[in-house]
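FORM 7B: Structural annotation worksheet

SECTION A. Query
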Amino acid sequence: MPSKYLTKQNLITAGVIIIIIVGFFGYRWLNSSQRMDRQVLLRLGDNQERLKQYEDVTLKIKKNEETKNKDTASLVSLALAWKGLGEVTKDDYFFNQALKVYKRGISLFGKENIIFYWGAGSIASSMEDFNLAEKYFKRAIALAPGYTENYIYLADLYRFKMKKLPDEIVKVYNDGIKVTDGSLQLILDKSSYLRSVGRYEESLEGYKILLNQYPENNGFKEVIQEVEEKINGTEKPAQD
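SECTION B. Predicted structure
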């Protein structure tokens, strides 16, 4: 016997409600998509090269929709595509789109894949939000302290963007060298930085470690000789 709730009138009402709900969310999705297109096209104008880049972005958006944002490589590819538009246009709108994708990656995979923190930090730096960039890079270090890249990204941010004091920059290198059991890349970067700011004795220590690992490297030998001459005050004047 049919339920008293399954009357013809109730079924019609339920059907209408479903159609309205589907139509509402469909309209919102379409309107949101069209609104994004309008925003982008207004910014890109008739520049064919940039329009082609945006076409690539839309294809990557579609691919991520098909994978329901579950594929890390597709998410990173989309973020890089948005970032590419930001770099050629110098428009923060595109950097913000890239940052949204990286944030999505962080929420889904952040504890398993720190590449999203690196990407978010890079985007924040491009937008000159250096405090936010620092936050992302430090979070990456906290999650995966054994990665050399973490310390390189943070040290570069301090050196070239935030203009931190030398001791703060050197501390980043030292922290990384300690945790990574003497990363030669970090020793090289630290020694190069110390040399650039005139802290030659400390720089020399690092270059000697590197030469000990690569005794046939003439580049290290030449730098060591140059640094020793600076320390001893015997550097030859530059030739005209």
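SECTION C. Observations
The radius of gyration is 27 Å. DSSP finds eleven helices and no strands in the chain.

SECTION D. Sign-off
Analyst initials: ____
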